[in-house]
Amino acid sequence: MNISRPATLLWAALPLLSGCVCVAKAATPSLSGPAPVFEQWRETGHRGSDDLLTAGLGIEALRSATAPAFSQPAQPTADEARRRAIWSSWRGIADLSPGGGFGDVYGSLEAAPGREFSAYARVPGARHPHRVLVQVPDNFDASRRCLVVAASSGSRGVYGAISVAGSWGLAHGCAVAYTDKGAGSDYYDLDARIGVQADGTPATEGALAFVPTGTTATYGIAFKHAHSGDNPEADWGRHLVQALQFGWQALDRAYPQAAPFTAANTRALGVGVSNGGGAVLRAAELEGNGFDAMVAGEPNVSVAGAPPLYDFVTQAALLMPCALLALDDLPQPPAQAQVAQAGAQRCAALKSAGRVHGDDTAAQAQSARQQLADAGLSAGALRAGAFPTGFDLWRAIAATYASAYGRYGAGEHPCAYRFSAAGADGTPGPAAAEVRSTWWSEGSGIPPGSGVVLVDGQAARSAEDPLHGLNCLRALGLGDSAATRRVRAGIADAAANAPRRGLPIVVIHGLDDGLVPISMTSDRYVPLARNAGAQIAYWRVNNAQHFDSLLAFPDYRKRYVPLLPYMFAAMDQVWAHLEDPAHALPQDALVQPTPRAEAPLLREQLSIPAIRAVPSR
To answer: CA–CA separation, 246 vs 252, rounded Å?
Structure first.
């Protein structure tokens, strides 16, 4: 559920008659069913001042808070929309601040010239397609075939995993396949009847990525995660597998003389963080998925039989503003004064509703904190939850996921939430063309943000009862009405099962994750996987929260370390084993790193688990 706010390098030798010196792989079960059909194929070249990894921006332009300009603000070109999307995807996920270590201690920002192939894909039974994209660098080596496959974090657009999969994969000589996993930033303006084309530019007709169907809503904003009617989370694993299949087909087109590229001759590594990590684990449970190994960071994964993460999100939306007052020295932003004022008001509302106990704000805050602790939230995770609380992300997440789980269209939300464009003062209204043109490039896939806001359709009732909307969202996961049964069915469809045997998996999670708490996700998934005989390693990282991008703020980098270095290290170690089994797969680790504060990050501060050799017999 990563909502990011303020926050492949192998060239073809093309072996022909002599046969390719292909990657040797163990026998893999063939994928069941017919190969998917990919529509609206596009191929574009990216060289010189426009490469695959940073669109030619480089580290300094990626660090800039000023987005790459559109020559015509209301109508960007496809190249301009792509460049800004890559800029936004980097800034939303990675810590690029000076001294933060990206490009020096871990990760790569080296230019990678090559080609991109993109298309629409559709999982069986889905109403709407999702985007898939493959980056094939000019130095792809068809004699050493490898493909890194990633799903976007959060609900971001198709470039949402570029700072993880793109940075590692391109630097290691691999093509990289991406999927927006049925979500993404293809917003649709119901007022103007304008959506997004395959090339990322706004349009009123043609092959638009998302056009809401079966809706009576005539105003506001619809977006795919909430309003497609497809419950994308239930199909995250299939989305990732389709990205892998698209990768093979794109490589067939890129190097027809070396085709076919298949599971038998092309090594594949699945990788993702947050929702992307959840997609990796969902793909791991599919037999014959074509992957050789998986690395999942801070995965949003709910295990069947345990309370789903939606339950925690709605509880946090209600209780956390009050509970945070039971802790001192919260990380900033948001400003602690802002948290205190809103928290005191929430405590009073909770007390009035009988949800907390105590005669004063301090006692009420302790009551709220204890309820979250009883649910499994650690003090560190509660502290890190100040960010999503301060920016009202819990409510936006809950409203979006409830709509998706229940497969509700725009204007049908059972709690009457909707989304709208907003003016400079935040008042809902029609979208300005200049704002609408930025949605595909900068939208996180779950508003608010990029000029789109969440609107309470029962504002008058909520004015009388400040908890009305939040109580409604919570009841959707707990009650027994027709609406709650519909939402709960969607939640059940999204629950994870154990992975297939023999597939190496590494799960990495920060102990202080306040958005996707480790105790409610990875701590439940790993035992499930192990009990089923999975080959899984588990790295738990102290002093790590959910958003690496927040380390740009001084108060955050004094407290926390980035999680991405551990993703890169795990990929290195897994890859070393796949290349040479003399290198052992990663083992379990409880990592004890040291935040950098204001000094440049040093690798030794991260205490990354060392790669090991297989013991001789």
So the answer is: 10
